Amino acid sequence: MHCLWCDQEIIKDLNWNNLFQLPRDEVLCEGCKKEMHLLKGPYCPKCSRETDGGEVCHDCTRWGEAPLEKNTSLYRYNTFLKEMIAKWKYRGDYILVDIFKEDFRKWFKALKISKGAVLVPIPLSEERFTERGFNQSESLARLLPLETANPLHRVHSEKQSKKSRFDRMTTENPFTITTSITQPVVLIDDIYTTGRTLQHAAKLLKEAGAPSVVSFTLIRS
Amino acid sequence: MIKRLINWWDGRYERQFSTIFPPNFSNPHHETSPHALSLSGKLLLEHQLPDDYRTLLENKYLIKIPAITKKHFDYACNRCGNRVQRFFASWPCGCGASCVYCRKCVQMGRVAFCSSLYIWTGTGAFFPRISEACAWEGELSRYQGVASDRIMEAVDGRSRLLVWAVCGAGKTEMLFAGLEKAFADGKRVCLATPRADVVRELKPRFESAFPDVTIVARYGGSEEVDEGAQFLLATTHQLLYYARAFDVMIIDEVDAFPYHADPMLPYSTARALKTDSTLIYLTATPRLDLKIRSHLKLLPTVFVPQRFHGHPLPVPVFLASFDLKKRVVPKALKVWLDEKKRTGRRVLLFAPTIEKAEKLKGELPGSISAHSEDPDREDKIGRFRQKEVDFLITTTILERGVTFPSIDVAVLDASHDVFDEAALVQIAGRAGRSPEDPDGDVVFFHDGASDAMVNARDSIRKMNKLAEKGLK
């Protein structure tokens, strides 16, 4: 096996813990694994940002009563992940989604979301979709055992990652919704930065009848 | 027998590519097209084509070749030459059940099983014949003159040549006469190198030497677009975008990482050349494969054993310091640095790893560090060159291609694996590069000398001896 990121050969040592187990397929080598920092508390109960004492963070107090009830993220943003996401999303190295597979499933299970909920990946605008060839949120949603729905539609606008915080917070809602929804919704996205995009989507989904909206994202930056 | 084997082996990339795109493709057109300049010699993806590409395809100005082909059970990427199956992955493309894309060259834009590459087959671009394009008015040393003549011959005779010139021999200046000749014949020229730093360093020098030639520099992150420049300066990765483009190809620092380690790069270099063209390798420290070819007379070689200012190369001094692993700053280094500080000399210190470089920076006041993961690298190197700082700590990233006048060089933990013979010779070559101050100190701090260190010192001495002999 070779590491999916750095292409180094993965050689596992044999010890009493794994002697009688079937070998597991490793995706990353030890060195690359160390660079992926899982968020470990205490963190803000609303957005998963790491805070000192586990209190609600400054940004979430500013949001106040927001349509999005809770966000859960897996990883802390760093330059290593930034490079990885860039290669995955912008360069189109689709298979890199396998790196997140195991953790993403495990954390989702720990959330104990009811079987009746539906996954809604944040859509891309049509222009962006033809440019990239795939929707990264959809590929994340595909890893999870629940059903996926696509009620949202996105109007083309500039990339979020090219904007400042002020620009982001004052943007208009880029989404429109076509159908009504009766199940609880889990929004899926790759990065939670200011939460603006997810809040926009959550607002529309609530108006369309969703009883509750939470989000599950890969990275909290 | 061995020579035939080596020749056969060297032709493998050419054969691989010529199965999908024959080199003597007949051109059905005689009139030139407005697109010829910007499209000819390139290997294009669909989104890089002009809007009217369908008519161009119908009129056979462009031909379409599959990006990835499948033979029996194996895939092969026709853009980067990759045949290693673990670098192929499937993705939900919408074209079919499992569309495979190449992960090896995904950095340069994804190509998948359903995508195509486009090659211009109309009449090629015509470049102006610029006579006496060279505005450089320096003088070449005797050795440089010999090499310069050989380069000119190679350009004229469309042959291959290895220029084996010591660090600081003035390789760039030796090229000028050959380039002038090439531009006078209206040839398209490329100077490729594995390192982006080298491209950035060379660009202003060539621009001032050839003011009338259109020069474009391409490397990862550069903004320039090649709309049909006569002279391309590029990293070897950028050659993936070209096919059958250049009459003259010069590869600077052929032995540098990653050119020798990644078959994608020699493959794209072989493809970027026209069938009847000049290929010149420039290096101070050729690897074994080039040395063998040179020794067997398969690759014509010209030696330049002397620096342009005529002084010998500084021979490295070994200083043992057995507290290397224990202390961040070993005693011997501290003594040496204090001495340099007192005499007001500027110092370039090489550390084996980025971590170590950062640690050293913390311990040594007045120093800055530059390494590959540093976003302000260019800025810091610039400040050291402008003499704003006197002490730069770096990793092997600065081992070659950069010139700082009048510095002393030290290597910490020179027996570390990252410092192979070539790296150490190159590092030693950073010192004493200006004619005003031709001998700088080169010190290797070690805790047990490695073979690489001894070999590096021997090869520097050998070159100095050769230079001496030649003068008599």
Summarize the structure.
By secondary structure, chain A is α/β, with parallel strands linked by helices. Chain A has helices at 30-35, 58-63, 79-90, 97-111, 126-132, 136-141, 165-169, 196-207; strands spanning 70-76, 118-121, 152-154, 175-177, 185-192, 213-220.
Key attributes of the depicted protein:
heterodimer; A: 221 residues; alpha/beta; Rossmann fold; two-stranded antiparallel sheet; 6 strands; B: alpha/beta; seven-stranded parallel beta sheet; 31% helix; globular
Layout: helices, strands, pairs:
The complex is a heterodimer of chains A (221) and B (472).
Chain A: H1 30-35, H2 58-63, E1 70-76, H3 79-90, H4 97-111, E2 118-121, H5 126-132, H6 136-141, E3 152-154, H7 165-169, E4 175-177, E5 185-192, H8 196-207, E6 213-220
Parallel strand pairs in A: 1-6, 2-5, 5-6
Antiparallel strand pairs in A: 3-4
Chain B: H1 2-10, H2 12-18, H3 36-39, E1 43-44, H4 53-58, E2 62-66, E3 68-71, E4 74-77, E5 88-91, E6 99-102, E7 116-120, H5 142-157, E8 160-165, H6 171-184, E9 189-193, H7 196-209, E10 215-218, E11 231-235, E12 246-252, H8 264-272, E13 273-283, H9 288-295, E14 301-304, E15 317-320, H10 331-343, E16 347-350, H11 354-363, E17 368-370, H12 377-385, E18 391-394, E19 408-411, H13 421-428, E20 442-446, H14 451-471
Parallel strand pairs in B: 8-13, 8-14, 9-11, 9-12, 10-11, 12-13, 15-20, 16-18, 16-19, 17-18, 19-20
Antiparallel strand pairs in B: 1-7, 2-7, 3-4, 5-6
